[in-house]
Specification:
By secondary structure, the chain is an alpha/beta fold. It contains 9 helices and 10 strands. Strand 9 and strand 10 form a beta hairpin. Helix 3 runs parallel beside helix 5. The termini are far apart.
């Protein structure tokens, strides 16, 4: 049995917007190679949690550690930290005037100062991995939503992050393109990538997760392995939430 290595630690995280408490003394560990799925009702703090981990939102108190280093300490250079923490959003945010290939290699060249030939080689390999090699010279306007989101995932992967954060990446997609994005994420999980995934795709969550966190009103209400959570949630709040999704899927 392989040794468990703690990669990410959140200790008593507090986050507020004015008088609104969004995260309430939240503590959480993520192990290397683990896929953690975060679910919960809208407005419960899921996206804010990811944005705090990636330094896009400052926390009021608590600590976040990556590889044992406190990344919320004063003086931390987030530009370096974010090379280790990839994040993919609902919106693709691709540069419309650049080709797919140029979008992907921009950060390795500008931020990591990598050799262009090596960056291109890595980009082409990743495009081939997700079935988009033939789109390398296309522009974002020539792609479907699912294709754009796969390019956005590659753009993060090429930076060789230690952990990937996914924030409702299928929410803006047409139903027919959701599957192609979820398949890429499932393949990443199987390859051993450490991931935190915020999603409302319950069947996908059950298939991909090593552990499920149910968040409500800024607090972890329940935490369990996927089979246990989806079959017999312990909290009434999680049960009500899952019943809504079961009803919607049957309609």
């Amino acid at each position: 049995m392989s040794e468990t290595v703690k990669l990410l630690e959140l200790q008593n995280i507090e986050k507020s917007f004015g008088d609104l408490e969004v995260l309430k003394s939240l503590s959480l560990d993520v192990n290397k190679g683990e896929v953690l799925v975060v679910i919960g009702p809208s407005g419960c703090g899921k996206s804010t949690l990811l944005r705090c981990i990636n330094g896009l939102e400052p926390i009021q108190s608590g600590k976040i550690k990556l590889d044992g280093e406190e990344i919320t300490a004063p003086g931390i250079k987030w530009s370096k930290v974010r090379q280790k923490i990839g994040m993919v959003f609902q919106s693709y945010e691709l540069f419309p005037h650049k080709t797919v290939l140029d979008n992907i290699i921009l950060s390795p060249l500008k931020v990591q100062k990598r050799n262009k030939a090596d960056a291109v080689k890595d980009a082409l390999a990743l495009l081939d991995r997700v079935g988009l090699l033939d789109k390398k010279d296309a522009y974002p306007r020539q792609l479907s939503g699912g294709q754009k989101q796969r390019v956005a995932i590659i753009r993060s992967l090429i930076m060789e992050p230690e952990i990937m954060l996914f924030d409702e990446v299928t929410a803006a997609l047409d139903p027919e393109t959701v599957r192609e994005v979820l398949d890429v994420m499932l393949e990443l999980a199987r390859s051993g990538m450490t991931m935190i995934i915020v999603t409302h795709e319950m069947q996908f969550a059950r298939a991909v997760a090593d552990r499920v966190i149910f968040l409500d009103e800024g607090e972890i209400v329940e935490e369990a392995e996927p089979e246990a959570f989806f079959e017999k949630p312990k909290s009434d709040r999680a049960s009500r939430f899952l019943n809504i999704f079961n009803f919607n899927e049957k309609k």
